[in-house]
Amino acid sequence: MISLDFRTKKNGVPILSKKEIEDIAEQVIYSYKPTLVTEPGVLDVELFVESYAELEMDYKDLTHDGSILGMIVFNDCHIPVYDTEREKAKRIPVNEKTIIVDNRLLEEDQLRRGRFTLAHEAAHWFLHRHLYLQDKSQISLFDVMKIEDKKLPLIKCRTSDIESNGRKELSTDDDWMEWQADYLASTILMPQRAFSKVVKGKFQSAKIKEGCYQLGTDFEKDLWADVMARELADLFDVSITAAKIRLKSLGFVKDQQDHQQHLF
Fold this sequence. Notes:
Layout: H1 18-32, H2 35-38, H3 45-52, E1 56-60, E2 68-73, E3 77-83, E4 88-94, E5 98-102, H4 111-128, H5 141-149, E6 154-158, H6 173-189, H7 192-205, E7 213-214, H8 219-236, H9 240-249, E8 253-254
Parallel strand pairs: 1-5, 7-8
Antiparallel strand pairs: 2-5, 2-6, 3-4
Helix pairs in contact: 1-6, 4-6, 8-9
InterPro entries: Rad_response_metalloprotease
Protein name: ImmA/IrrE family metallo-endopeptidase
């Protein structure tokens, strides 16, 4: 796995722009499978997580209401999950370097969101593990008890954290870390050069010379933009929501001011 270098605040939280995250994603993908950087295709995210990031994966019922989609556990600990038979929470032991995804994302209509969740948790590993990892040889039983009683060495990701449209106010370090992980996940699954290559071809076919379409200016082109997003979702095996967010983040599609009803 490639070693990454980036700026951090004094408390260790990364300071990253979109451009810097795009660069990190390209480094990661190039070191894993170079062709995916420039050629559109589907990343085998489970293989990527296990063989490249060297993380374990598991699926559990994380909550009773599906509010938590995934988590990454940095150090050995006991985590809370939901016992569906007893209808109450319970704690289970989990090994370090483990991604746990909610069982609901194994349902047929949620598989693509499950792929994104895996990429999101892996992104936390790439960007934030230095904030949580501990040297086992330096941890005493007292330290373990403190971990179990207080802050667990893990990151839980809620539905609002994954496939986010970027409109959430980023006011805390946790907010920024979730945004960083989500943006990196999108760039890993839809690398900029490969994604842009396809989109530019579609713009050319549609005879849109500006390289950017503003929603709400033409109904037929709004339909075209929606179809394009669906085709991109199929090509990269992501949700339509994720493809639409990526189109906007790269500046290919923009919302019209005060245009409330549109397909995106």
